Amino acid sequence: MIAPADLSDAAFTALTVKIAADRGFGCASYKDKCLRRRIAVRMRARGVHSYAEYARVLDADQAEYDRLLDALTINVTKLFRNWETYTVLRERIVPALTALPDPVINVWSAGCSSGEEPYSLAALFHEHAERNGASAIAEGGRPHRRSCSATASPRRRLPSSRSGGSSRRTSTTIRSRGPRSRAPTSAWR
To answer: Tens of pLDDT along 6-34?
Structure first.
């Protein structure tokens, strides 16, 4: 008789702890059902039937880790994807940040798929400046500068980012043009 594959909760937990320790991936931030389903897809692709077997595959094949992390991450993006979040940013966070005395604000969008999230953030800062007639010059004579940076994840998305298929960095500078601000200048790198 063949012993059933170990797909117990304890074996699953051991695998997710291993993934977190080996790659720093926050498995605890994901729902178990989602993780189990996506890990099962990779296990089937590799022809293994237990979490322990899959852990051994990950140890032997580092490229499988990349495929797994790609399967686990959410590769969905669009402008203002989660409007409820952007509403809070628009109404509370952006005004609070722009009220600070330092004229330089750097914002980072971590793990963005192809750049729409940092572009959305830059648009919020620009809209706030236009809506409030923000001066391009801060106290002390230094120009206001807003920088929205982004890092793409997973690694296989980076080549398209570098080639201009998506953004890795969006820098927005509000420049003075009389009483109104000019549209932001953006540098896509």
So the answer is: 788 899 999 999 999 998 888 888 888 98
